[in-house]
Amino acid sequence: MSRLGDLIRLERTRQGLTHKQVARKCGVSDKYLMEVEAGTRIIQDEQARRILKVMGLSQQTEADFSLDDIAATVDLQSAVPQLTRAVEKKEKQPVAEAKADAGVSGSIWLDALAGVLKHVPIYNAVMKEVGHRLLPITNGKIEGANPDKVFYFMAPDNDLRGFRVQKGDIVLVVPAQAAVDGAIMLVQTPLGRVLRKVKRVNDYQAMLQKYDDAFESEIKNYNEITFVGRCVRLEADLT
To answer: Which residues contact 174 (CB under 8 A, 6 or more apart)?
Structure first.
């Protein structure tokens, strides 16, 4: 369910109207209306105005919705392909052409959504970008961090398999320069960046754990460790 879909469904059911009745008045298909209510369809600005007016909510236009409200009106996974194409097209367009298109074919809803989504890079062990994910920005942050500072790191090995992180899985990393007890963290070593589970030992030492076929750990002084960030999300490929 979406914020805009909630409003439409609430008013429609309050008036005892069916999808087909409202869709006919709005000039859209009942399937389209059901998808809007379910939050799986990006709605164009003119269609949004028409539906809001038909449902008796004409005083609440798109200007009354915050960026977070707009972002909540669609299912992000279904929106990603359209947003990606829109962003890539906008980046390739000459400035003059982009300005000419702005008031013609662009949707304020799509533009607003593009403004609250961020291309987050995926890096491998040598910090080469190998892909990206689109993530929502909430109150100017992603997982409480600056959107420009977060990234995904692809596990280069099975050192944390016992902690359910396998080679090829990606973890979302947010900046953290101090040990977070019990967290999986990205650590800079002389041989490169590695993932380790961290346990604080005392005020000046931490235990770095790995768990493949067997559990292993080593205790390091904080001045010997460079923490890059804390892992807050795991994505694994099940195929």
So the answer is: 142, 143, 144, 145, 149, 150, 229, 230, 232
- Any idea which architecture 3-71 has in CATH? Orthogonal Bundle (1.10)
For residues 9 and 1, give the distance between their C-alpha atoms in angstroms, rounded to a whole number.
10
Q: For residue 212, which of 176, 160, 146 has the smallest C-alpha distance? A: 160
- The pTM assigned to this predicted structure is 0.58
> 84 vs 73, 117, 142, 165, CA distance in Å?
18, 10, 18, 28
Q: Give yes or no for a contact between 156 and 124, defined as CB atoms under 8 angstroms apart.
A: yes
Q: Does domain 137-235 have CATH number 3.40.50.1820?
A: no
Tell me which H or E stretch contains 14: helix 3-14
Sheet holding 205-211, edge to edge: 129-136, 117-123, 151-154, 170-175, 226-235, 184-189, 192-200, 205-211, 215-221
Question: Could you read off the pLDDT of 97-142 as tens digits, one per residue?
Answer: 544 444 433 444 555 555 577 889 999 998 999 999 888 888 888 9
Q: What are phi and psi of 226, to 5 degrees?
A: -115, 105
Retrieve residue 154's tokens: 């692809």
